[in-house]
Task: structure prediction
Amino acid sequence: MLQFSKYQGLGNDFLMLDGRGASSTDASYGLTPERIQNLCDRRFGVGADGVILALPPRQGGELRMRIFNADGTEPEMCGNGMRCLARFLADSDGDLPGRQWQIETLAGRIVPELLQDGSIRVDMGAPILDSESIPTTLACGENGLAQGNLEVAGSSFAVGAAGMGNPHVVIPVDDVEAVDLERYGAAFEVHPAFPARTNVHFVQVISPTHLVMRVWERGAGPTLACGTGACATLVVAHLLGLSERCARLDLPGGPLEIDWDQASGHVFMAGPAVAVFDGVVTPELWGDEPFELEAPAPVQQQPDASPAVDCASVCTNGCIRPEACPSAEARARVDALLNGSSLDDLVALATNSLESRIRSRFERDTSQES
Result:
């Protein structure tokens, strides 16, 4: 059975898969765009805004994060997803407040920290303001911000753009509730000014330290929250003279505290991440191929041995090393378990594992409260 945990940060929800014990940093556990879409479907699947894989590191971090949108595409990073991943790691490993993680992403290394109240504070790094790196065709203005006027769906908007490892366009408006998000969000996402598409954020200024925003996420559509988007929105609002460097940003799912630290130039985001439930995916939802019951054990190689093979990516058309398959032992264990166990036995095995994890989480939270 493929086990997962569902977490949400301000209503932005994700399915977590723990592959830190995998033999490859590129392990995908059989995930395909179609399977991700099935998992994230809110009527016929589990329901989520995305799927997150925790994998072994590549570049000296503690682990690597891969995230997939509900449509199966892979973005560079996600702030709410990062908070959810950090909380998932803390719950899985029994970590206490003050724990930090060095997490590799396509947007660079991100450092979340578990706070005393159970929320997560994330060092999101420095914002990207260079037009070419965002990327956008908008020209950089006198205030160092990529900005301009764009025609979208028959209307003209003054916009600013910034990157947080992924692209964002920010549109100040008088009333965010009056914005037709379905119409304008979808049009902005694919506007030619953003060659890699973009996340879209409409923002209303309540005060210099209080902003309200609505989100259209690239590859996901309307969501209740976007952590990288909240960071980019504060940066753009500050450079436009609309806000301070530190402010509360209210999203449909709740508030985030964003601080663009002047000394380091880094943007810090603080907000909640909450466990929703643990579960297993049924074979009917997954498809024809068998589940990976556990991450494959690392292959012990002799100095003169040939490199390990990532079977998930290079053996899709058949084993390329049948005489010495590095996954043979792990696959044999899986086959033996499947052949020697009934479906009820497998469900009981997964249930016991999940119950143990939930019990550990409850006992730790209870001890912290006392």
Notes: The domain at 146-269 is CATH 3.10.310.10 (Diaminopimelate Epimerase; Chain A, domain 1).
